[in-house]
């Protein structure tokens, strides 16, 4: 799909068109070989509607009181393994003809970092509470105002075994500071 914007009469810019690289005869011949290998006789009755087939399977399961209907085979999906077997190494030869050396069409594109690249993502600063502040929270009953990550850090620092729930963490910390 190629879209070219039509310009207004007062728009006098020079438009740069990208140069089309025509395929050479060797590339065309290799693609003709690939197409010949992948040809097959098309018969419309060979390809059933997968949604309709699944509907029929569901009705069959309902009528026979089956727990789960069978999965309908989707015949419209290309058979990749069979295509690869038929092609052999023609696809690789075509890639070598079309792509420049060192280019990997199957490789992932590298992600670009935002910004100028010198900045590092800042980690959240952990709030460290002193033992006295923790004792004050326990005695005032305001320990519940602290967040779960802070409570987990307190449990880790004092080697307390608390659960994952906030109430369990509060109980363990309160019991520890009431004992000591």
From TrEMBL:
<dbReference type="InterPro" id="IPR006165">
    <property type="entry name" value="Ku70"/>
</dbReference>
<dbReference type="GO" id="GO:0000723">
    <property type="term" value="P:telomere maintenance"/>
</dbReference>
<dbReference type="GO" id="GO:0003684">
    <property type="term" value="F:damaged DNA binding"/>
</dbReference>
<dbReference type="InterPro" id="IPR003034">
    <property type="entry name" value="SAP_dom"/>
</dbReference>
<dbReference type="InterPro" id="IPR016194">
    <property type="entry name" value="SPOC-like_C_dom_sf"/>
</dbReference>
<dbReference type="InterPro" id="IPR005160">
    <property type="entry name" value="Ku_C"/>
</dbReference>
<dbReference type="GO" id="GO:0042162">
    <property type="term" value="F:telomeric DNA binding"/>
</dbReference>
<protein>
    <submittedName>
        <fullName>X-ray repair cross-complementing protein 5-like</fullName>
    </submittedName>
</protein>
<dbReference type="InterPro" id="IPR036361">
    <property type="entry name" value="SAP_dom_sf"/>
</dbReference>
<dbReference type="Pfam" id="PF03730">
    <property type="entry name" value="Ku_C"/>
</dbReference>
<dbReference type="GO" id="GO:0043564">
    <property type="term" value="C:Ku70:Ku80 complex"/>
</dbReference>
<dbReference type="GO" id="GO:0006303">
    <property type="term" value="P:double-strand break repair via nonhomologous end joining"/>
</dbReference>
<feature type="region of interest" description="Disordered">
    <location>
        <begin position="102"/>
        <end position="122"/>
    </location>
</feature>
<feature type="domain" description="SAP">
    <location>
        <begin position="143"/>
        <end position="177"/>
    </location>
</feature>
<dbReference type="GO" id="GO:0003690">
    <property type="term" value="F:double-stranded DNA binding"/>
</dbReference>
<dbReference type="GO" id="GO:0003678">
    <property type="term" value="F:DNA helicase activity"/>
</dbReference>
């Amino acid at each position: 799909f190629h879209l070219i914007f039509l310009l207004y009469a007062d728009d006098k810019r020079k438009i740069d068109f990208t140069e089309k690289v025509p395929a050479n005869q060797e590339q065309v011949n290799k693609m003709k070989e690939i197409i010949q290998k992948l040809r097959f006789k098309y018969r419309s009755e060979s390809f059933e509607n997968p949604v309709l087939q699944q509907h029929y399977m569901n009705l069959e399961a309902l009528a026979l009181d089956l727990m789960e209907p069978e999965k309908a085979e989707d015949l419209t999906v290309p058979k990749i393994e069979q295509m690869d077997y038929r092609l052999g190494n023609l696809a690789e030869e075509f890639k070598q003809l079309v792509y420049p050396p060192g280019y990997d069409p199957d490789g992932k594109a590298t992600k670009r970092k935002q910004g100028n690249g010198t900045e590092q993502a800042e980690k959240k600063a952990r709030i460290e509470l002193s033992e006295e502040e923790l004792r004050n929270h326990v005695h005032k009953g305001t320990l519940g105002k602290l967040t779960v990550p802070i409570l987990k850090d307190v449990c880790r620092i004092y080697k307390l075994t608390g659960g994952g729930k906030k109430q369990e963490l509060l109980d363990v910390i309160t019991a520890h500071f009431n004992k000591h």
